[in-house]
Amino acid sequence: MEKMVRTVVADEGKVSHPALFAAPLTVYPKAVNGPARMFKWAVLVLCLAVYYLLPWLRWDRGPGRVSQAVLLDLPHRRFYLFNLELWPQDIYVLAGVLILSAVGLFLVTSLAGRVWCGYACPQTVWTDLFMWIERRVEGDRNEHMRRDKGPLTAGKVWRKVIKHTIWFAIAFWTGGAFIMYFVDAPTFTLQFWLGQAATEAYVFTFLFTATTYLLAGWAREQVCTFMCPWPRFQASMLDEQSLIVTYQGWRGEPRGHRKVDAGKPNGAVATAGLGNCIDCLACVHVCPTGIDIRDGVQLECINCGLCVDACNEMMVKTHQPKWLITWDTLAGQKAKAEGRHVPFRFFRPRTLIYAGAMTVGIAVLVTAMATRAQIDLAVQHDRAPLFVKLRDGSIRNGYTVKISNKTQAAAEFVLALRGLDAGAMELADRSGAPASSLVLPVDADNIGTFRVLAFGRPDAAADGSQKIDFVLRNTTTGEQTRYTSVFMGPGAGGS
Ligand code: SF4
Ligand code: SF4
Q1: Is residue 429's pLDDT more than 70?
Q2: Is the peptide bond preceding residue 441 cis, with omega within 30 degrees of 0?
Q3: How many angstroms separate the alpha carbon of residue 160 from the centre of ligand 1?
Q4: What is the spatial distance between Cα 386 and Cα 491, in angstroms, rounded to a whole number?
Q5: What is the pTM of this model?
Q6: What is the predicted pLDDT for the residue at 464?
């Protein structure tokens, strides 16, 4: 460090400062085959299929409503997830799901390191897809590097143009697919190409297109290393018992190149005085973040296991035991270096805490969902006038009553007043004598708003106001709820 920041006195006597910024090296990951790579492809295909196809999945929600299985309908303030319909009041469900996802991520990280980063994070998935396209167009690592270092030729230009065109097309498809989670997908697609979609739709499609193109095509591993906060605090979830991709230094060192052992069959290598690592750098060349796993646990490592596949291939070629790079715990490696064996411990204080928190969280969420009310009542007292004294001496208060009918059928609701002696109500915009209760119709999956006038005797509010309850009952389902409000009056001796 001291060496890095020390100023340098040049020959001419001028003081120059060494650059504190090092431009990132371009990473050219080599293609590799093996179980980790196959699993990574499988996760990639699954994630992309779900992302691109989900908005097109239809789900019958009845006439006049969008038949889309997953839809965040912001104008109508609804979130549809297959059979589940969430209202703004149900926001706690989304908050609960997010908290559970975070705790789940903590649990997975404490068990198996950054597997989320290595396999399922959107940045990883799209970067992997873009790299695959790059390899198809520009060739694998060596060919690509050679061409990049060479002169500008027609072949180099057309390859770059094709690659960026495909990248941009995928980014555009990705941006458009994101918008489809907020609108009816078929309608939006048609309107988009006819130039009839909302301006915001075009703006956000462009925004997400640009973001995907830049992050997956250009920024790549820089996002994981410098932009994402997760690597910084994931270290607090790891311990000596977490399963991570590890180079077995006790077995591989001293590393070194070697020759084929003429005395052994099938091209086996001479190993005299050397460990299993033949220093071929295959593990480094396939690494999407460009690091050398042999340097130990590093922040940049996303636990993807591609170096495991690459090294296994080399071990097979050199007739040495596989899994020189493997998934193991630091405790396991320490024990193996000493000739011992320690089993993997699933149950540890931190994993038990995370698993316990998840279990409790899931139970609370499921209970809350199962007992979720299908009606909701909100009552707002008029701000002015607070009350009106009528000619017959009675007091009148005005309220705005909102009834949410979350069921899929139109319903009639009975609204009753409790806590006001001889209290009565009537709708402000309808004629008729005041009654102790009102029958109010509300359409399916809708909110009914009513202006309600309540009447009471002046001696009923001794201190100027008293608590009253509005009780609401769905006449079809019998479900009931109540809302506590106030009835204002002049009070004893008031006028
Ligand atoms: S070191 Fe290995 S596991 Fe880590 S990111 Fe590189 S290839 Fe993946
Ligand atoms: S791939 Fe295996 S043998 Fe080759 S350098 Fe890496 S650890 Fe050593």
Answers
A1: yes
A2: no
A3: 27
A4: 13
A5: 0.84
A6: 76
